[in-house]
Amino acid sequence: MPKAARAKPSHIQPTAERNRVxxxxxxxxxxxxxxxxxxxxxxxEQVRDVIQNSWARSATSGVNAHASATPLVIDDDQLDRNKRxxxxxxxxxxxxxxxxxxxxxxxxxxxxxxxxxxxxxDTRGDNRTLDAGQExxxxxxxxxxxxxxxxxxxGTALSTGKPVFVHAAEHFCEGIKSWTCAGAPIRDPVDQxxxxxxxxxxxxxxFRRHNIALAVLAAEKIELALGEHARVERLRLLExxxxxxxxxxxxxxxxxxxxxxxxxxxxxxxxPKPAGSEDGFGLNLGHRLIDLRDAATEKEIYDRLPEPLxxxxxxxxxxxxxMSGAMLIYAAxxxxxxxxxxxxxxxxxxxxxxxxxxxxxxxLLHAIAKAKRAxxxxxxILVEGETGVGKELFxxxxxxxxxxxxxxxxxxxxxGAVSKDLLGAELFGHVAGAYTGAAREGRAGRFELASGGTLxxxxxxxxxxxxxxxxxxxxxxxxxxxxxxxxxxxxxxRLVALTNRNLKEEVAAGRFRRDLYFRIxxxxxxxxxxxxxxxxxxxxxxxxxxxxxxKYGVEALTIEAEARHAMRHHDWPGNVRELRNLIxxxxxxxxxxxxxxxxxxxxxxxxSDSDEVRLTLDGGGSLEDTERQAIxxxxxxxxxxxxxxxKTLKISRSTLYRKMKQYGLAR
Length: 667
Description:
Elements (H helix, E strand, L loop, with lengths): L15 H4 L5 H13 L11 H12 L15 H10 L1 H17 L6 E6 L4 E6 L1 H9 L10 H4 L3 H8 L3 E4 L12 E8 L6 E9 L8 H33 L9 E6 L4 E5 L30 H7 L8 E7 L2 E9 L31 H13 L6 E4 L6 H12 L7 E5 L5 H9 L17 H5 L3 E5 L9 H10 L1 E3 L6 E3 L3 E6 L3 H6 L5 H7 L2 E4 L9 H17 L5 E2 L1 H8 L6 H15 L4 E2 L27 H15 L4 H8 L3 H11 L4
Helix pairs in contact: 5-9, 11-12, 18-20, 21-22
């Protein structure tokens, strides 16, 4: 071990003055040499405290001060494993690395990304500097931890957990004193642990104290990308949890772990006591409970948990085919939770749908089941589906299934039905005189009206960009500000947003805020189009047939097999709404109370304008003879299709029947 390990601690005591010392090459080299020999520093040998302290740690670790490069470089296989384990970090850093490299183009600088141990994962920048870096193993696989290669921008920043620049002679190892570097740690957005580092390195002439600011900005950019990824993954885990939730007692506790085994969600009274309680065990948000890597089964997860924290239910959560987390359910008092129970089916499909939502197709029942599970908490829900699929019915289902108070308000509002100028006032309310035309006494907005219940915002994709931050603020703060008023008004609202747009595409196109999308889409519910609800069309036909017969006080329709077949195989671009409108129209317009194929619209196989029969009348005889001749020709040309005959003659079917009876004509 170098003599520095025996150096007196007095000469490395921190002082504010030494942290502001201007760099001097000769003075710093002399201080380093004296440090290695254990001699007391001279009066002019002022070196920054962060460097002095790092030299001491380096010497204590046994680092060779005369080394010319890092002595450790991991092999390609281990480097590949490192990269696979840190795919999120690499993906989040890719843009920031390239942006920093572009900014530093032609400055002889390189940008370095490392893992939490100081092993380099990626390098970008000036090609000559990248080549020179290989001489000291400043390359992917190089290990630059402080206890391996001494004081340097990577290792010292990781050791202190703070941004650090190390310039030239300040390095501990002699062979890297011709470099300058500035490193900034990258922290995990969930638990703030250091998970990597970004460093700017190069020859001494690139040294500027503000290089460290650039490194910090790049690190912050990576942390923002990681934070967004963590939010997305948390939402997807919550959705995966809802999709595989077993039937539980209302008092049961729920804990969700992310892929790192950290607690990202907990709810319920049966969760073990917080840390610091009498038993010393407990769960807290962000707490890394277990290592979930390579734990693919329920039993493996269960066995890794501390015994006091073993739940009644364990279930791995997957996003796609990847193991992405785990769900733990702690049984309420009186229910056993000593060992995991056999899992119930992934989806608890209800035996009977909600009365307002007709159909028994598997996709519809799955959507109903998911809506009811999502209703158990007051998290925002995004309901997606084509026009006419019944999204508002699902919003009402969520409201009724998740509301203890039957009198709680359900407020529906269409964001596309009001002009942009009035939309803010409609949603958030206004005070007297807030704008021209405002109500004299002011007025509450939809958020205030829905407080204690559910606010259903239809066509959320129509919300203008400049109003979206205000909606986000209400959701984040739980308070609304009326237009013209700075006073917050607390609101407790469950938000159900509806859209027939692909909001992810709207986000990518810049027409919808990314942060708002993730806030309203905590759970997404996709309503299947009618053409994919196999077997539901007949049930809906009969439902609407009897509904409208009762509404208008008429006999229910008889729908012939050919007409029913055509409706069953129609594409239904307007979905349930289109079917509903068709049955209502037939109920009102049919005089025969029987629906034939020719009574249906052209796109369903009914008559078209091209089917019109051309009449050739002789023009002689009385008006009655001419009329009789026209009806006879039309019946013959239409092959007995009286709907087509009536359309050809431009008379109603009831008039046609009366004329046929008058002239004694047969079908």
